[in-house]
Amino acid sequence: MSVKQEMRAIGKKAAAAARALASAEGSARAQALNILADLLESERRFIMDENGRDLDQAEKNGLDAARTQRLTISDKVLASMVQGCRDVAAMADPVGEIESMVKRPNGMLVGRMRIPMGVVAMIYESRPNATIDAGILCLKAGNATILRGGSEAFHSNQALASLMHQALEQAGLPRDAVQVVPTTDRDAVKEMLKLSDYIDVVIPRGGEGLIRAVTEQATMPVLKHYKGVCHIYADETCDLERAVEIIHNAKTQYPSGCNALECLLVHERVAAGLLPRVAERLGRDAVVFHACERSLPLMGDADVQPAKDEDWGKEYLEMTMAVKVVDDMEEAVEHIAQYGSNHTEAILTNDHAKAMRFLREVDASLVVVNATTRFNDGAQLGLGAEIGISTSKLHAYGPMGIKELTSTKFVLLGEGHIRQ
Q1: C-alpha 28: how far from chain center
Q2: Which of 36, 54, 109, 394 is the most exposed place for a label (fewest CB within 10 A)?
Q3: Which run of H or E residues covers position 410?
Q4: Residue 247 and residue 251: Cα distance in Å, rounded?
Q5: pLDDT digits 0-9 by tens, 222-263
Q6: Burial tier of 45 (Cβ tally within 10 Å: 0-12, 13-18, 19+)
Q7: pLDDT in tens, 44-70
Q8: 318 phi and psi angles, rounded to 5 deg
Q9: Strand partners, 124
Q10: In DSSP terms, which residues pair with 303 in a beta bridge?
Q11: Coil/strand/helix, residue 243
Q12: What residues does each domain of the chain span?
């Protein structure tokens, strides 16, 4: 069977599974998720062994540290997968929910019913936990899913797919409700993006090259999950001690995360007081700074390099951070508008008016006041697991949980009404 034939077969099976899911009880979908949680725990050794195969190959291929970290299924990552399954299973079923029912002047009732999207395809890099997150969220929302992870995670993803198939079958649901593309052939993605007859929406989650390729080639709607060039602006009124801790957390807790801090903007009036503290605190964790001319003299003994033009707007995904001193908030907002990626932006300030202005003027899927950028995460924002963080404004903007993986249709309840 050719790659084209294989992908069409996958699409056809997904469409059939989506129709079956649309009529399945929400309790069956929740049951499948709880069974999957049990399987993830009981099959820990199998999962770790398959992930080990990927990690061994990654080392041979010279995969960089950031992508290797994303590829690794640690005990903590596996525990998070298990908890994600249980949390999503326990959440309210969105399918069939009626919203905004209103009575028209003629007595008929008009509302919106929440419905599955149908077949959701997702193309992503490195993270095996994204396979579980995407699969369980789409299933809870009543969608069938086609998943294409990075070739570096092939064995991990196939192992997780086999467990999802077991869970679906044990719950009496079609195993094809979640399919992981069983080949690393790059032509599989090209063929998948032609399947508009079967796939309702595609979600690319990864770097700039992946997003651009999917956007240009897809024949179905695209929900982009773009890179995270996240900024923190430290205003002149910020609490310096608190600012240092927030900046440290945003950069070092998980530097390869898409919501990690990549560029620090500092008001000129607090630069002399804040930057030496930031350099000392983050320097202990071996953070490398790419600093502008005004900030260079303030960085002490830290590992610092003069910033180049390409450092602004760069997603480092490692222990490296750009630093820039700005004249005022206007310059900070302008810098974010020019170099940000509409992902996560934060301000540290004790001025309420400036905080509210920053919230209004900065365009990002999450805008934060006096907290770390690391909170742009589905679980942290109360959505449970997430399929990703959308940087597209149409349909969804920000972390996509269960509700964001559904659509709505109008429903009308009449009593013999006719149009005059």
Answers
A1: 26
A2: 394
A3: strand 406-413
A4: 6
A5: 998 878 999 999 999 999 999 999 999 999 999 988 999 999
A6: exposed
A7: 999 999 999 999 999 999 998 878 988
A8: -155, -175
A9: 205
A10: 288
A11: helix
A12: 3-223+400-413, 230-375
Domain 3-223+400-413 shares a fold with domain 230-375: no
230-375 architecture in CATH?
3-Layer(aba) Sandwich (3.40)
Alpha helices in 291-366 (DSSP H): 329-339, 352-361
What integer pLDDT is reported at residue 38 of this predicted model?
99
Q: Is 234 helix (H, G, I), strand (E, B) or coil?
A: strand
Strand extents, DSSP E, 210-352: 230-234, 261-267, 288-291, 303-306, 320-326, 344-348
Residue type, 276: P
Summarize pLDDT for 353-378 with one digit per residue, the tens: 999 999 999 999 999 999 999 999 98
Positive or negative, the CA dihedral 56, 57, 62, 68 is negative
Residue type, 291: A
pLDDT tens per residue across span 75-110: 999 999 999 999 999 999 999 999 889 999 999 999
Q: Which residue has the tokens 């809870």?
A: 140
Pick the CATH number of 3-223+400-413 from 3.40.30.10, 3.40.605.10, 3.40.50.2300, 2.60.120.560: 3.40.605.10
317-340 mean pLDDT: 98
Cα separation, 322 vs 264, in Å, equals 6
Helix axes 129-140, 26-42, angle to 10 degrees: 160
How many CB atoms are located within 10 Å of the residue 351 CB? Answer: 15
33: alpha, beta or left? (left if phi > 0; alpha if psi -120 to 50): alpha
